[in-house]
Specification:
Elements (H helix, E strand, L loop, with lengths): L1 H17 L2 H4 L5 H9 L7 H11 L4 E4 L6 H15 L10 E4 L3 H15 L8 E4 L5 H7 L5 E4 L1 H9 L10 E5 L1 H6 L3 H10 L5 E6 L4 H10 L4 E4 L10 E7 L5 H11 L5 E4 L3 H13 L4 E4 L5 H13 L4 E4 L14 E4 L6 H8 L9 E7 L4 H11 L4 E4 L9
Parallel strand pairs: 1-6, 1-7, 2-4, 2-5, 3-4, 5-6, 8-13, 8-14, 9-11, 9-12, 10-11, 12-13
Helix pairs in contact: 1-3, 4-5, 5-6, 8-10, 15-16
Length: 400
């Protein structure tokens, strides 16, 4: 007992010297604060300042915040601390369930958990489960899992196989609830809700408070603390936006010209379809640019490999659809290019908000054909900011 106390005192002295007071005031344990220092977390995000103390007190949360706002750590940290104080669940009876819309986000959330559980005095087993891969290895790995990150469809498959039970869930998290509803998970989530104990803590996070999200809030949240963090719309001043007017037949060469001429080393390119993502990535590779497409038709292994290569700098260009981009979270991404415009102004802001993060500047470029001009004017009007348009008709694109 004396040895443990002495060790804790050393940890407290360590983080008091190295961690800003804003983190130390959130109620987190010395062990978690030490890991925060080691991971070089400098200041908590606004949502972390508000959510962490409330979650530790057992309150339900409705957090309205965009991807990249620090929301994942805002629930991961207090959940880990709560689990450290609880006795272990029965085998295959998880304590914490986190529902997410995509495989990429499931992996990302699980990675954040693993980042913080390593170095804790008591080990905590977490697992991400999702479709598109064999179910049998996931069934085996569920032994002893306390935190389960899951897509709804695969979770129901595992439940029907009696590989996991939800009767002991103490904390439920819905991450990116707006996307889950847009993707048509309503029926699956209703089935999952019916299997959960009525007494539990509920944490719901969404980029927007749509009518559907509001309905779920009324169903599952009990007197929640509502936290609304200003969205990416209010952070676009850090992003240098440019648009190039281009004819349809010159769009591909212009994209390759911009990447090569400006020596872009890390570029996220958005297309509106799976087919176009493949075409753009293929043309980039043919022209000597390291590129790969990431979309729902790719195997899980191929998607993970492409994302890892892009994050590590081995791949210069990742061509993505809007859905697949939900799991791409890169702190200092320098360039985003809209090869095709999204349907809604909100999706446009979400796309360009992938750059200009963590108080770092970024560049967002849109390629605008004649038929895009009216829609792009609507996007700019909704955004409240006009984008400089450059006519590319005089650019020499021969050889690109």
């Amino acid at each position: 007992m004396k040895m443990i106390t002495f060790k804790l005192l050393n940890i407290i002295f360590y983080f008091k010297k190295t961690l800003p007071m804003s983190f130390t005031s959130l109620g987190l344990s010395p062990y978690l604060l030490k890991i925060i220092v080691e991971q070089k977390y400098e200041q908590p995000y606004p949502i972390q300042l508000k959510a962490i103390p409330a979650i530790l007190k057992g309150k339900d949360i409705l957090g309205i915040a965009q991807t990249g706002s620090g929301k994942t750590a805002s629930y991961v940290l207090p959940i880990i601390q709560q689990l450290q104080k609880q006795s272990a669940s029965k085998n295959r009876h998880v304590s914490t369930l986190i529902l997410v819309p995509t495989r990429e986000l499931a992996i990302q959330v699980n990675d954040v958990f693993n980042l913080f559980v390593n170095g804790l005095p008591e080990k905590l087993k977490t697992l991400a489960v999702y479709g598109g891969v064999s179910i049998n290895p996931q069934m085996i790995k569920l032994q002893g899992v306390e935190v389960l990150v899951a897509t709804p469809g695969r979770l129901l498959e595992l439940i029907s196989s009696k590989a996991v039970h939800l009767t002991d869930v103490k904390t439920l998290v819905l991450d990116e609830a707006d996307k889950m509803l847009n993707l048509g998970f309503k029926e699956e989530m209703s089935k999952i809700f019916s299997l959960l104990p009525k007494k539990r803590q509920n944490l719901l996070f969404s980029a927007t408070l749509s009518e559907d999200v509001n309905t779920i809030k009324e169903i599952i949240l009990n007197n929640p603390l509502i936290i609304k963090i200003d969205g990416e719309e209010n952070k676009i001043d850090l992003i240098n936006q440019l648009a190039y007017f281009v004819s349809a037949e010159r769009k591909g060469p212009l994209l390759r010209y911009l990447i090569k001429h400006h020596k872009m080393q890390q570029v996220l390119v958005f297309t509106s379809s799976v087919f176009k993502a493949d075409v753009v990535a293929d043309k980039l590779r043919i022209n000597g640019i390291k590129a790969s497409a990431i979309h729902s038709k790719k195997s899980q292994g191929a998607r993970e490999e492409a994302l890892n290569k892009f994050k590590s700098g081995k791949l210069n260009v990742l061509v993505a659809t809007d859905l697949m981009a939900r799991g791409i979270d890169i702190k200092f991404l320098p360039h985003v290019i809209n090869y095709e415009l999204p349907r809604s102004p909100k999706d446009y802001i979400h796309r360009i908000g992938r750059t200009g993060r963590a108080e770092s500047s970024g560049e967002a470029i849109s390629l605008i054909c004649e038929e895009d001009q009216h829609h792009f004017k609507i996007i700019q009007k909704k955004m409240g900011k006009w984008v400089t348009m450059i006519d590319s008709s005089d650019f020499d694109l021969k050889g690109y």
